[in-house]
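Attaching the record inline, Q. Sequence:
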Amino acid sequence: MLHFSRLKTTAILLTIAVGLLFALPNVLPQSALAYLPSWLASSRVTLGLDLQGGSHILLEVDGSALRKERTEQVRDEIRRVLRDQKIGYSNLALRDTSVSLRLRDPADTQKAVAELRKLAAPVTNALFGNSSGEMDLLVSSGADGAVTVQLSEAGLNARMRSAVEQSIEIIRRRIDQLGTVEPNIQRQGLDRILVQVPGLQDPQRLKNLLGQTAKLSFRMVDQSMSPQQALEGRPPPESEVLQGQDGQPYLVEKQVRVSGEDLVDAQPGFDHNSREPIVSFRFNNNGARRFAATTQDAVGRPFAIVLDNQVISAPVIREPILGGSGQISGSFTVQQANDLAILLRAGALPAPLKVVEERTVGPSLGADSIHAGKVAAYVATALVAVFMIAVYGLFGLFALVALAVHIMLMFSLQSILGATLTMPGIAGVVLTIGMAVDSNVVIFERMRDEAREGRSAISAIDKGFVNALGTILDANITSLATAVILFLMGGSGPVRGFAVTYILGLLTTMFTAYTLTRLMIAYWVKWRRPAKLPI
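Structure, as predicted:
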């Protein structure tokens, strides 16, 4: 156990050198980072919201809007089915989460109910992914041809779960475009989403970015009457009046010629002539084909670009646009153009989000936490050092060298993995300082036991490492399993932050406390050839 080949020694020292290299940017001043390669300068531990400050927002998916949209979808599907089956009806009406109608011929009731029940789909179990046996639509009939299609509670809950999961992914994409690191985005309850963005001190911009549904559509402007006439009288049934970003009303056709779902890219830029900020966009093949057909048929007509039921701009089509790309202009600032491009790239939210709670965490709180964590780490290290040297002498000093390397490697791994260090994470660092010497204590006590049984110093040292290995592995593997479960099951950021630090600390402990300490003692034994155990 005390023999180390040249290859093994080189591997251990190389591991320590690489760890030192990646840990170095964490202690260098900001001015010195400019002289380092970009891949190394960026490998710094990311501080969480509680340490560097940032924005904290709790969002709620608008359930009423989600129910309304779903009810309207069901109404449109009912119209299609009854039209295809040539079943006459009247008094089609929406009532919260149901659609009611009356058949012109009550004899068609059984046929209509059978066809409408085909619209229902089984509700998927959220945990196991299989059907729960419930349907998302309930169809019933009454007297005189009355038919009601009710949205089931199970179906609405499943739709809400899906909307929250989709919203989390879109929120993550939007925030990632801001260039911030390690946002904490997680679900809370059935319909709420917690968003924490470390380092972002502008919660208003974050609210603006997350508060927009970003449903983009391209529609034709209706020129059959002026918007004022439509507001004073009655607009055509296939058109509606929408407000423009400039405050002017527009009469716009309800038919969506091209949807924002067909966008594949959107980038901010500047117009070559006016030098005003714009957003350039590009469609996929389907969108490009529809966009080309629309612009070919509507040369000379205004074309409305609508975002969340607001007209951003309504340019006149001068010539067919066949390349599948275009640009949006609307008196944007540079930041507005950039944020709009982010929204379009990330995609539309399935439902509006309401801000339930917001707060900005100042960096002063984080500075106090870091200072308290440093003091705790210094005190813990000092107490451990005094104990190890007082009890184990020279071998205790070897253990302290391994402890210093352990701390360095732990921060190095956090830098490489891009893990976020939170206040509970600092607590995990302090905890592993004490745990890091536990293995050495077990090894040294085994050595003492072997020496008491009459073994020579070198034999006692060798047997101490051999006999302690099983105990060290058992203790660290069980702790590692607990930490992994804590990481997987701990939903909140602070809990997972503690688990990550704890896992990395256990891994580096098994390397430094056993392998590195053994290497130092092996070379000391080779150099001194002790006759007596120095502990």
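The mean pLDDT is 85. Residues 363-417 form the longest helix (55 residues).

More tomorrow.
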